[in-house]
Write a structure and sequence with these properties.
single chain; alpha+beta; three-stranded antiparallel beta sheet; 16% strand
């Protein structure tokens, strides 16, 4: 008989510790609502972070290409075609699309020692975005100015 009584107590204890069905479904409903609110916010944060990181990466690629182009342009007897080729080859290798290259002065062959030479590269972010959306209307521009040798 003692065994029989202990089994009843366990059964009573287990059934008393479980919440009623309405409480359980209310908790599940609250979890579903929380998930429905949190998932879109989480997706927006992930997309915004991805776009921002991609934008910084493209800006850095533009800066490096402008620097390398300016280095080519400041040597004696430099030509605009060499500067453009250097910038284009670096940007193509990095997968940057829709860029434009401007030089000041437009012909680096006219530079004298001590003159300044500027290379400016611009690219639309919408052509280079992984996800797109948040920064699609941005035009990224980077310039480098070096002194001719």
């Amino acid at each position: 008989m003692l065994t029989y009584g202990n089994q009843n107590r366990r059964t009573l204890r287990n059934s008393a510790s479980q919440p009623p069905t309405s409480r359980r479904s209310a908790r599940m409903g609250a979890a579903v609502v929380e998930l429905a609110v949190c998932i879109p916010i989480l997706v927006i944060v992930v997309v915004a972070t991805t776009d921002a990181c991609t934008m910084f990466h493209v800006q850095q690629n533009l800066k490096v290409a402008a620097y390398e182009g300016a280095r080519v342009g400041i040597v004696p007897q430099a030509e605009a075609e060499n500067v453009s080729y250097q910038c284009e080859s670096l940007l193509d290798a990095q997968g940057v699309n829709g860029f434009s290259i401007a030089m000041e002065p437009s012909d680096p062959g006219t530079l004298k020692a001590g003159d300044y030479f500027t290379v400016t590269i611009s690219a639309d972010f919408k052509d280079n975005a992984l996800v797109g959306g948040l920064f699609a209307d941005k035009t990224l521009t980077r310039s480098v100015t070096l002194r001719a040798e």
